[in-house]
Amino acid sequence: MVDHRQCGFMNKRRGQIRRAAGPTRESRLIRGRRCFGSFKDCAVATLLAPLIVACSMPLAPDAAVAQPNLDACVVILHGLVRTSNSMGKLADYLVASGYRVVNTSYPSREKLIEDLAIEYIPPALADCRGPGIDRVHFVTHSMGGILVRYYLENETIDDLGRVVMISPPNQGSEVVDQLFDVPGFGAINGPAGYQLGTGDNSLPLQLGPAEFELGIIAGDYTTNFVFSSMLPGRDDGKVSVERTKLEGMADFIVVHEPHSLIMRDKDVIRQVLYFLQNGRFSREEIGGSEPGPAVNANCSIEAVSC
Residue 43 pLDDT more than 80? Predict the structure, then answer.
C-alpha cells in the first residue's frame, strides 16, 4: 500500500510506476531532468508534422495559487503518438501546487479509443485513490480528452471533480478526413487515429455532451501550414478552434499556442490549475493568451455566444 503522503507524482510507463514525493531531492532530480518526449516519440511524430522539441526547468507555482490540495488527485492523459513525458511539466507544476498526480502513459497507436479508455483509466483511478483523497480530477491533451469522454459516458466516477481538456478534437478534425486514405497514416497513428475525423467513423461525434464540470483550452497558432490549410477558421495545426468545443462545457478560452506544445506553455499550465481550483478560467492572469467569453454550462455548440 502506497502512503499518499509520500506519493506526489506517479508516472506509469510499461508497467512501472515511478514515485516521487514533492519536497524530496529525488523529486527535484526527476523534475530537473524531464524533457519534452523521447527521440523515438518525436521521430515518429515528425513523419507527419515537424515538432519543436524543448527541454526546460519546471514552472514554479504562483504563491497566490499554490494552496494545499491534499484531498484531491489529478489523472493526466496525453494525446496521440505521445507519452506521459509530454505532460511532465504540467504534472510537476500540479505536484508543486499540492496535488497528488498520476501521469499515465498508454499505447495510443496500438488500440481503439474505447479499448484504451477501458484498459488504462481504471488503473490510473486506482493509483489516484487513497486515504484522504475524496476528489479525482482529469487533465488531458488532444485525444486524451476523448478517452475521458468515452469513459464517463459508460462508467460512473462517484468522486469525480473537474476536467480540463487542452486542444481536444471534440468534434473531430478535418486533417484526419484529408489523410484517411494516405499510405502510412494508419502505421503512424494506429486504429485510434482513424476515429478522430468528422465523418461516419468519428467517435467524438458519437459521444454526448459534457455532463461533468469541464473547461476547454484551445490554441490558434500553427507551425504546420500544410495541416492548417485543411482546417477552417482559426486552428492550432491539428484541430480548429470551433471543433474543440463541446456542449455542456463550463468555460472556454483560446490561447496563441500550437497543438504540439500548448500543454507546456506556462500560462496554459496556470490556467489548468486555476480551473481545477475555481471551476472557471482566469481572465486576468493568462498574460499573452486570448481569453474567450465565459459560457453557460447548457450552452449549445451552435449558439453564437459559445
Answer: no
